[in-house]
Write a structure and sequence with these properties.
Elements: E1 7-16, E2 22-33, E3 50-62, E4 73-74, E5 78-83, E6 89-98, E7 107-119, E8 122-125, E9 128-129, E10 133-134, E11 136-142
Amino acid sequence: MIARGSTQTTLGYTYTSGGGDNITVVQDAALTTCVPGSTICAGGSTAYTGTQAETWIEAQPQNPDGTKCGNPINGAVAKWNISTAKHHQTATNVLHLAKSQLGGCTQIRASLKVKNVDGNPLNLHAGYASGQIAATHGLAFTY
């Protein structure tokens, strides 16, 4: 659960770029506002009609040994208004990078940042539903 004003990081994975000059990272997460009396997440209040959230991808350039190599590169911030009637808002984000932005680094550590800007607490669904369907997804490719 993500409290109002807090940011959580999910989907951290390391991607080694292949041939080509550009990298695209795509990540998504399922977000639900915590409503009063919810069995999924606590802390919802009738003072709010949902949650305002922001999501973005952070790509941290890395060396082959996993040490940081330069500063993180942040993607565009996506804004979400999740009403109490909405369950599992899919928050999809895309980051396009030129390999030249990596300063000679060969890898990136890609993560999705989720911020609860205002409203009720926010549930970030993670793991697998029924052991088969992932609630969060991430991929990267070089072209």
